[in-house]
Amino acid sequence: MPKIYEGSYEGQGLKVAVVVSRFNNFVSERLLEGALDALGRHNVRDADIAVFRVPGSFELPAVTRKLAASGGFDAIVCLGTLIRGGTSHFDLISAEVFKGVAAVTMDHPVAVGMGVITADSLEQAIERGGSKMGNKGFDAALSALEMANLYRQMGKPKKGQKRSR
Length: 165
Prior knowledge:
Rossmann fold, single chain
């Protein structure tokens, strides 16, 4: 039988950063509430959680990269809300946010949960921020915990070493 590696949602002893965008705050704050709820329910102590607020989703990758490079966190949860408007701005910003956060996950040995909502309307965003569609902040926090535990099972790379792709 093969050896199976699988993460868990157990957060005890994990240091977690949550990076949240203030833009579209009405929904993003619900995402933050969901993420903090998930972390608390899975035994991450308040003292082991740090919340970083950024102006908008575009700033999420830069702060996430700095936090990942610091080595001070086992997991980072990225939260934000992008709502389509009448111009191409939504497409440009959402593509850069997702590419930027994805680059961090490939370049640093830290688990990253992606809880950035992209929606065509405020109603869709609200649904994903804690109503009909659940809370994507909660889901992103769970993903980050699971990956942090999987990374622990895999062993930590040496300082300055990147995870293999």
